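Recall from the previous lesson that a structure prediction takes nothing but the amino acid sequence as input. Here we apply that procedure to Beta-galactosidase from Mollisia scopiformis. The sequence below is the only information supplied.
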Amino acid sequence: MRVSIVLSGLLGFGRLVSSAYTNASVAFTYNRTSFLLHGESYQMIGGQMDPHRIPYQYWEKRLYAARAMGLNTIFSYIFWDQVQPSQDTWDFSGRNNIAEYFRLAQEIGLHIVLRAGPYVCGEHEWGGYPYWLSNIPGMVVRSNNAPFLNASKVYLDRLAEEIRPMLVQNGGPILMAQIENEYGSYGADHVYMEALRDLFYGAFGDDMVLYTNDGGYSEDILNGQIEGILAETDGGPQSGFLARDQYAYASSLGPQLDGEYYITWLDLWASNSTYDTDAGDTTAIESIVSDLSWTLNNGSSFSLYMFHGGTNWGFQNGADWAKALTPVITSYDYGAPLTESGGITDIYLALREMIVDYLGNETLPAVPKNETPIAIPEIALKPVVKLFDILPEPVVADYPTNMEKLGQSHGFILYRHTVTSSVSGILVPGDYPRDRVLVYVNQTRVGIIDSIYQAPAKVNLTLEAGDVLDILVENMGRVNYGPRIPDQIKGIVGNVTMGESILKGWEMYNLPLELPSASSSMSTLELASSSLSNSGPLFYAGMFDVEGEIADTFLHLANWTKGVVWVNGENLGRYWTVGPQQTLYLPGCYLKKEGNEIVVLNLEPSEEMGAVNGVVNRLWGNNPDPDAP
Ligand SMILES: *[C@@H]1O[C@H](CO)[C@@H](O)[C@H](O)[C@H]1NC(C)=O
Ligand SMILES: *[C@@H]1O[C@H](CO)[C@@H](O)[C@H](O)[C@H]1NC(C)=O
Ligand SMILES: *[C@@H]1O[C@H](CO)[C@@H](O)[C@H](O)[C@H]1NC(C)=O
Ligand SMILES: *[C@@H]1O[C@H](CO)[C@@H](O)[C@H](O)[C@H]1NC(C)=O
Ligand SMILES: *[C@@H]1O[C@H](CO)[C@@H](O)[C@H](O)[C@H]1NC(C)=O
Ligand SMILES: *[C@@H]1O[C@H](CO)[C@@H](O)[C@H](O)[C@H]1NC(C)=O
Ligand SMILES: *[C@@H]1O[C@H](CO)[C@@H](O)[C@H](O)[C@H]1NC(C)=O
Ligand SMILES: *[C@@H]1O[C@H](CO)[C@@H](O)[C@H](O)[C@H]1NC(C)=O
Ligand SMILES: *[C@@H]1O[C@H](CO)[C@@H](O)[C@H](O)[C@H]1NC(C)=O
Ligand SMILES: *[C@@H]1O[C@H](CO)[C@@H](O)[C@H](O)[C@H]1NC(C)=O
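The prediction returns the following tokens.
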């Protein structure tokens, strides 16, 4: 491959042409020991921060905070599903205006490392893949598969068009791009990785510096590297560096970069999963500082994963899969130096001190002042409409169809069957529950089958002619990390059975819930509180004003079991009493002084629901799952 590049007359800077190494007019390259920016040695003091997880109104101050801590490089994932929501539509607006994010970074004095996947993991829905890939015949993701590479090419070409002026060779801040993400811990198909390399060169030009990033273990490096492409590792720091020297192709060796130094770890929904952070833990912070100080003094580069995690807005969260589904919580705080709401932590301050020490005389911008969140007094919420009373036109068929085939990415699908002759037994909603299945008979909840459990609850029913069976299936997040599983399809896959009977005759309702289908202008629904438990999902709505200055707040829905919250049309994400997250981040930029509208989809109304208010400090903690099998 290298030979054919040379023969075709293309210069592979940083790949093979050593005379290019010291050429100052080559914007960015590397030699065996250093990254070289305009011919000068460049050490990446990096941190991960993804535009899609931050309100765009806050990009500038988050980037400034990164620079003020001493970072010079932002590592940024791009989520394919966000920018190409359907095969024919592109969205580079709002939080997807990546070019603008990069432009702001440059203005603030930061460089960018592009992590565009196409597979990024990142605890994001399906690792960034758009749902519609599942509808393309012959599609096999993360592999040397024509339909997959074809779709990837369309994405990378369009992304390149969007951000081309931001490449360092065009005077922008983007230094280099990562191919795939830790592929070596998933597969070992070098032909696939080489095909992706060629798509990146095709989209971004042959002078783009590319690299792979794998776990710092022999197998991962052997599996994930591409000959002639810089091989970097993550985790570590030291173990990955030593392993790389031992296992990477000689032509893939270069300056050492710990591509993801884990500050803490992600958090998952479950009664026994706690919020993970090292803030306040002096010993743990000393160990982070010592690792990273070692890395810098070693002449190597790093990227903090995460510098600032932000929020999995709406339904963006992914899930892990080990023995059961473990969905990622709405917050992507990650115990990062800069909190979800932009707060400066003791981790931030300790790292800044270490970096200032290391840099010696370089002046950094001042540490931004912590903004004080506001409290919002109890918001009066009224039930306004039943989800089952505002269903869209159904798709009618003999047997169920999955979410993707119904043209939907995330949210819910309601499957309705009217019983024609008596039937009884355990309800089996397709091959396996995907993911959280609420079961109703005549709109009374009779069971919940939840795939977060290895052995989900069994719902045993006896139904008579005329009974209406409703199966509401929630996509809790497609798996971004875990062993190979056959597919990432949501809704119901296969037939619904009870005992020996296959249930025939379905109405299927698409409920993507991009926007709430209810509003505070609807009149109050009169409900006896005793009818709440086991009722169908209800929308609640209310209005509130902000007293004094507008600022961030954290919404607390005390004792509300599970659901989704929108404020002024922004989907703040899922809440769930199991925790560890007990409040939802509501940034001040989504608020106005007067007439803020809140809408809550309450999946499991109960008599226990407490006050809904805004608090100044996030609440973390776990409650028992009322729906545990
Ligand atoms: C340096 O790079 C520039 C831009 O690619 C090229 O035009 C020039 O010929 C190179 N000079 C040397 C000495 O390689
Ligand atoms: C890489 O470039 C740096 C900066 O010019 C130089 O100090 C270093 O010796 C070079 N390393 C190698 C192996 O050429
Ligand atoms: C690749 O995509 C193009 C349109 O984008 C389509 O015409 C072509 O058939 C696709 N090829 C494969 C192998 O999927
Ligand atoms: C919580 O932990 C217990 C014991 O380790 C385990 O059996 C159970 O499945 C866990 N629950 C969830 C939802 O992860
Ligand atoms: C950096 O660390 C590696 C071991 O991980 C070591 O081999 C190398 O000599 C160190 N380099 C410097 C400049 O300290
Ligand atoms: C830091 O010191 C070095 C060496 O004394 C000098 O070349 C450089 O300009 C100084 N940088 C700043 C930002 O003062
Ligand atoms: C389902 O419930 C019925 C009636 O209570 C009972 O007879 C039957 O054994 C149950 N089936 C299973 C598989 O538990
Ligand atoms: C459900 O509603 C139907 C239609 O009103 C009725 O025939 C049936 O008896 C009801 N079933 C139950 C269990 O209440
Ligand atoms: C569902 O059952 C029908 C009737 O037995 C059968 O024709 C169909 O193939 C089944 N669908 C699946 C996905 O198994
Ligand atoms: C939540 O419910 C429990 C159990 O009913 C009750 O003891 C507690 O006071 C409630 N908390 C709030 C904040 O409403």
